Amino acid sequence: MSCQVDTSDHFSHFDSTITPWHFLRFDERTWKLVNSELLYQNRLRAPSYAALAASVGFDICAVALGFPEGSGQLAVPMPLVHHTFQQWEDRRDLLATTLDLVCVKAPSFHEQPREHLSGSESLDI
Q1: Which residues, 6 or more positions from 86, have their beta carbon under 8 angstroms from its beta carbon?
Q2: Could you report the per-residue pLDDT of 10-26, keeping only the tens digit for each?
Q3: Are 73 and 92 in contact (CB under 8 A)?
Q4: Of 8, 46, 103, 114, which one's alpha carbon is 20 to 30 angstroms from that of 84?
Q5: pLDDT at 125
Q6: pLDDT at position 4, please?
Q7: Cα gap 41→110, rounded to integer Å
Q8: Are 58 and 104 in contact (CB under 8 A)?
Q9: Distances (CA, A) of 113 to 54, 109, 116, 118
Q10: For residue 37, what pLDDT is reported?
Q11: For the chain, what are the domain ranges?
């Protein structure tokens, strides 16, 4: 599996008055009120995506974080964020605005190979 995730505030792409981290300043209750159903945005940070993939049986092959164009990842001043987002010890985890993630399904000894079925057989699910 490979994916690219935009972890920025999507409104910052066309509203120059807000930063890519603007949506991180709100507490969860306020965010539920202002987050649009038409352009839903979750606020997961890059490590959370990798942890979710690992939790469902994927081995992480590659992770690449992206940062706003024209700025070094550590040159960006720390944005104003709600205290629940201050848990990230590595500021790159908070400041990354894109995530490229490559994973493979981990082999499991619990999985048994399925026998080939003819067209007349069915699976009991």
Answers
A1: none
A2: 999 999 999 999 999 99
A3: yes
A4: 103
A5: 36
A6: 95
A7: 35
A8: yes
A9: 22, 10, 9, 16
A10: 86
A11: 2-105
